[in-house]
Amino acid sequence: MAAYGLANSLTFVSLMVIWFAIAHANVVEVGGEMGWVVPRDTSDDVYNHWASLNRFQVGDTIHFKYKNDSVMVVVEEDYNNCNSTHPIFFSNNGNTRYELDRPGLFYFISGEEGHCDLGQKMIIKVLNLPNDISPTESPSDKAPSPLPPLSPPSQPERSGTIVRIRDFNKMASVFGFFSLMFSGFLLG
């Protein structure tokens, strides 16, 4: 009987650790319901306004949903000039995910001719420092590392114009591992 109490306590603690780790990495839908498109009003700074309403942290992933377009990460000068000739990252699959893997500014533009000039560009500021940067290393020394495109999850959890998606498959796998481990402990 005491073994069941111990197993239940360990299961609860394991679930809390898993939830805490997963709850802090978000997938955010760029542009909310609008997605990644040429803004209707070119005088409006739609995407930078949208980005300013959100708080991005290291480890968050931004998700671009679009048709007949592309997403590029560029340096500040190329962002300011809508220059798409030397992107740091490029994707045109219509369903792009990009991990914000360092603090600082990320510059995004559409790679389709004329779209950036029409306002399809965005700056995202990532706020917190990751644990792996030493005090002498500058955050700008790290180049962003893109994630490969992933398929969208089946049931996102909606919160305003932000979609936060938990990686339930990972949680289920870890929970299954711990369940098997505890079952073996109880039976053996």
Architecture overview:
Belongs to the early nodulin-like (ENODL) family. This is Phytocyanin domain-containing protein. The chain has four helices and nine strands. By secondary structure, it is α+β, with helices and mostly antiparallel strands. It has two domains: 47 residues; 141 residues, Immunoglobulin-like (Sandwich), CATH 2.60.40. The strands form three sheets. It has a four-stranded antiparallel β-sheet. The protein has a three-stranded mixed β-sheet with strand order 1-2-5, with no helix packed on it. It has a two-stranded antiparallel sheet with strand order 8-9. β1, α2 and β2 form a beta-alpha-beta unit. The two termini are 14 Å apart.
Total helical segments: 4
Biggest pleated sheet: 4 strands, antiparallel
H/E series: HEHEEHEEEEEEH
Molecular shape:
globular
Structural domains: how many: 2
Query: What proportion of the residues is helical, as a percent range?
Result: 25-40%
Which strand-content bin applies to the residues? 15-25%
How are the strands ordered across the major sheet?
4-3-6-7
Indicate the mean pLDDT: 73
Gap between N and C termini, in Å?
Answer: 14 Å
Q: What's the CATH H-level homologous superfamily of the largest domain? A: Cupredoxins -  blue copper proteins
Q: Low-confidence spans: pLDDT under 50, at least 5 residues? A: 16-23, 132-145, 147-170
Gross CATH architecture of the largest domain:
Sandwich
Radius of gyration: 20 Å
CATH topology of the largest domain: Immunoglobulin-like
Based on helices, strands and strand pairing, what is the structural class? alpha+beta
